[in-house]
Amino acid sequence: MPGTGDIMILVVLGLIIIAFAVLFTFVPVMLWISALAAGVKIGIFELVGMRLRRVIPARVVNPLIKAVKAGLDLNTSKLEGHYLAGGNVDRVVNALIAAQRANIDLSFERAAAIDLAGRDVLEAVQMSVNPKVIETPFIAGVAMDGIEVKAKARITVRANIDRLVGGAGEDTVIARVGEGIVSTIGSASNHKKVLENPDMISQTVLSKGLDAGTAFEILSIDIADIDIGKNIGAELQTDQAEADKKIAQAKAEERRAMAVAKEQEMKAKVEEMRAKVVEAEAEVPMALAEALRSGNMGVMDYVNYQNISADTDMRDSIGKATGENKKDNK
Fold this sequence. Notes:
The protein has helices at 4-26, 29-37, 44-52, 57-70, 76-84, 89-101, 108-116, 121-129, 170-187, 191-196, 199-206, 232-294, 299-329; strands at residues 132-135, 139-142, 147-159, 216-231. With 330 residues, the chain is an alpha+beta fold. Strand 2 (139-142) and strand 3 form a beta hairpin.
């Protein structure tokens, strides 16, 4: 049977093992040893404080070791503050090292601001050393002769570190270059001039200072491809002629409708006059009867009136018959 002393020794050993387990779990001892080996002066309690502030010590210490080895003047306070602000400490340190190697003036504050602004600060430094080529899609413009010209450009840009915070991005550069291409093609009197000298597009666009207010510096604009599109002028003239035709047809239809209405109006007037003639003829017998009653007209006068009326009817019938015979002979 083990004695009381043996039990106490086992308990003490267990407590020691637990204490070391907690120590190595909560306190990054190995990270502290790595920092000391790299010549980075950082206290073990400072690492414990990072744990208490919910900062992953490796996210701060490893970039700090890298910065010290590269000869940068950084400390844990700056790196920890940037980490707590939501920044990427490792990317900022890599950017500072790359800038130092490329002899680019970039402070930690500016690099941190660029990183917090949502831009890739390391990519920006790399673009300052190795310019980037942005290729635009085909941009169509119409020359003065109505021919559509399509052009594709390659824009060589270099990152402007001073304007990365608050500067416009690639989309703005592409939009401005596209606007310049359209205006240059549109100002050409003939599409053949654009095809003969595509450099006029790049020279005109480049002279407008399109990189103002952007995060880039435009080094060159080169026309990669140029092509002929539709005859926009002819299509517009065709559409205009079709529209004029429809307008003329509408006006002609309006005039025809007015003529038909006028014809119907005249027919109505003719019928109205006929009605008046019939009404007047209906009054003739009444007038004759009144004349006979009043003695203003005798019986012989009435007989003569009848004879004249019969002669008139006979002549009318003869005239109609003669006219019909002439039509038949023709």
